[in-house]
Amino acid sequence: MSATLMYEKMKEKLSRVVPDAELRYKAELADRILELKKERNAVILAHNYMEPALYYSVPDITGDSLELSRKAAQTDADVIVFCGVRFMAETAKILSPEKTVLLPASKAGCSLAASITAEDVRNLKAQFPGVPVVTYVNCYADVKAETDICCTSSNAAMVVESLDSEQVIFLPDEYLAKNVARETGKTIIFPSKTPQARFDELNYQFIGWHGKCEVHERFTVEDIENARRQFPDVIVLAHPECPPEVVEAADFSGSTTAMVKYVQENKAERYLLLTECSMGDNIAAENPDKEMVRMCSIRCPHMNQITMEDTLAALEKMQYVIDVPEEIRVRAFDAVNRMLAIGPGGARD
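Predicted structure:
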């Protein structure tokens, strides 16, 4: 595809959300990326939070992080370029050890994934011996390796209930844990705020951790109330990583893929998405007959590090290769695979 044809394709989809000068410049980059993708026998994955010009130009697959990794594993590509953050690229390597995985940024971390370490998990297991550990997939490989089973935001309750255990250690997202505890009718404690001597006095089923997404934790009920005052017909969608009171006040809560599907399948004209801002632009581009309320000014600083320029550089230089030690990879794979064996819902974060 020539840069001119790429520009026309991008313009048709993005003229309402991306300035024309930016489209022309990025169409040139996209054309070169596609050439290199073919030369390297690469597959390009883009998370729903990627900026629109990237999201609608070079990726072969778009969606939630685990879904992307699973689909990439089914391809015959030699190289996976993961336009997302580091824990996502690690998951791609966990599922495709024979492929070269590139992250188009030297860091691209995650506040939630960085909130817990493998040692933290080992300490919790020693503190609560015999209690199964459920870990949200939005964590690093060494944490997954210490886990009995992983979960996503869409199947977390199903995973917890599949364990048939009176108590569960649920890591690392505080708000997702609280939302799942509320959904399943369980009580929750956070050991870092509870003296060891009091554990026997408490009635609890969930043992949580104080990890948070620095984007989702900033949304408030006041944001929803303000939007509804101005737009009484607005439908509010909140990610399960948002505070429980925000999720409860929203009209719908679900993974990024579930949000995309909700907007596509519902007839309402106006939506407010309480998640990373670029996703609102991407949904607006795909649904020109529907309005995304532009309240959001919250971008993930880590996702924002993935640019078209860096995606091109990653393929040119084959740089920022993601490796996972085999001993950790195998154990992490087992935790992910146990989740996938449970049934549907395992492909959405």
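Summary: The mean pLDDT is 92.
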